[in-house]
Amino acid sequence: MPQIEQLSRRTPKVSVDDLLEGFHPSPRFGDVSFDSYRPDPSQPSQSIAVKALRDFAVEVDHREPKGLKKLFAAKRQPSKAGIYLDGGFGVGKTHLLASLWHAVEGPKAFGTFVEYTNLVGALSFRKTVDALSSYRLVCIDEFELDDPGDTVLMSRLMRELADAGVKLAATSNTLPGSLGEGRFAAVDFQREIQVLSDQFNVIRIDGEDYRHRGLPAAPDPLTDLELKRRVYSDFKGQVVAADEFSDLVSHLEGVHPSRYRQFIDGIDAVAWHNVATITEQSVALRFVVLADRLYDKDVPIIASGRPFDELFTPEMMSGGYMKKYYRAVSRLTALAREGLTGEES
């Protein structure tokens, strides 16, 4: 028998130390390395990116000394403050970023763009700077440009960390359909972060989304009866969070996104009854964060109701936050496939 819980009844309490301790690669990327990355032979930019990151890891471990020691240190060619990986979904950017994190000595931090903005919201900007300024490396996955306020906030954070001698690494989340349009993500990144642009090496990674290379389309939603049967037949001895979708969506409003890692702690699988299209932007954006955390922890999903490609409205999928929604649909689809077929996403 599975152990049934409800996310809609969870209200995690998280300390500052707990928040900071969560800034490491998720279990999905807990053991990755440069050696475990498999470049596509038809995409030479992938091999180029691996070499660039290996070299950057050496720079991080031999960063310039500060203070009086720097005056007497041997002169070296000044290195860039950071490295930025630009590319579409599923080309292995997060794998490479996590490999960089694993390759260097600490203290170091790894999190998504949204997790860092949520950290600032939970701690304050100054306390976040103080907490991260002693780190050797700060990795920011899926740098987002769709919210000007958050972009300015992260620009300022990265500038202050770079001034403190922290090495930075970031990835983009370019839309697959925009890969041929002048490499827009890197251009936007450099425009929005003008102060930092000349301090970053921009590395382009081309390729198709590995999550859907040769894989079947996303499975159809289950009926509610099939969903209940699968919960008890497929997840024996596991902890399954089974929720009415509308209850879960409503409950998320009262849980700060910075706590979503702890929110799903101990959950082996989720079962959502009667998935419906989300029509409110603020609700949809919170759900995107939950989708990211579920994907981070490789939590399989089974669901009834609407298919995940109908989770967000057409207006959302073509609007200012479309990058977030496309990523969420891609990830939820992968987890739904795993939930029904046992394939790893």
From TrEMBL:
GO molecular function, one term: ATP hydrolysis activity
Pfam families: AFG1_ATPase
One of the GO BP terms on file: cell division
Entry superkingdom: Bacteria
Cellular component terms per the entry's GO annotation: cytoplasm
TM stretches of this protein: none
Keyword field: ATP-binding, Cell cycle, Cell division, Nucleotide-binding
InterPro entries cross-referenced by the UniProt entry: ATPase_AFG1-like (IPR005654), P-loop_NTPase (IPR027417)
Official protein name in the record: Cell division protein ZapE
